[in-house]
Amino acid sequence: MAQKYKQVELFGGAMVVNLPSSFTDVSTIRQVPDNQEVYLDASGFSSLTFDLTEHQSQFSTDNEALEYHFADIVAEGDSKNIWSVNESVELPKFPSNTPALSLVATTALPAMSISSRPNTPTHTNMMFTLIRLVEQGTDFVITLNVPHVPDPGNKREQTGQDLVSERQRAVKMMEEICREVLGKLEVKDWGLFDA
What's the pTM? Predict the structure, then answer.
């Protein structure tokens, strides 16, 4: 069944984007910093975060900036595995020279801290996108998190093949969501970036 999407305003209407219909605005239940928009999947554990950060001009390549921003959100002590990097993300509603990169990764808590409580993720699949708005002095980070929560009813130990299949399904779903998000993401008011 194909995912349904809805148009959502970000940052007071300065941007618009299409999000999965099941994603809801976190600011309706808790405070979110002014430079962020956070959406949770009401039917699961996935989340989508839009984060306006200061442009990191000290890096000689956009890939270094991508690695810096990714490392910034991974908790100290968590393991991380970057599966792929795309250095030419398409943003049809942005100027054609806008640098945009993404990576697909898996992060995990240290094994000793994974709880036996239900609904505790063993790892998180991530699609992490960096849009470099140099003229606006902004690095725009978009993070899609899809935690893997084992089925408590399934007592069978997961094999390596099970984990590969689960990751492939998660990546396919993340790619579909990100294609829609990035394809429809549009700045309506560039004044958003005025200092």
Answer: 0.85
Q: Distance between CA 98 and CA 131 in Å, rounded?
A: 7
The predicted-structure confidence for 176-191, as pLDDT tens digits, reads as follows 898 999 999 999 999 9
Indicate the DSSP class of residue 92. T
> How far apart are the C-alpha atoms of 1 and 192, rounded to whole Å?
37
Distance from C-alpha of 85 to C-alpha of 121, rounded to nearest angstrom: 24
- Amino acid identity at 179: R
Q: What is the rounded CA–CA span in Å between residue 80 and residue 107?
A: 4
Report the chain's C-alpha Rg in angstroms.
Answer: 17
In angstroms, how far is CA 69 from the centroid of its own chain?
Answer: 12
pLDDT 10s digits, 50-82: 999 999 999 999 999 999 999 888 877 777 878
Question: Residue 60, SS3?
Answer: coil
The C-alpha atoms of residue 96 and residue 155 are separated, in whole angstroms, by: 50
- More confident of the two residues 1 and 90: 90
Given a contact cutoff of 8 angstroms between Cβ atoms, the answer to whether 83 and 104 are in contact is yes
Q: What are the DSSP E strand ranges found in the chain?
A: 5-10, 15-20, 23-25, 36-41, 47-54, 79-86, 100-108, 123-133, 138-148, 186-187
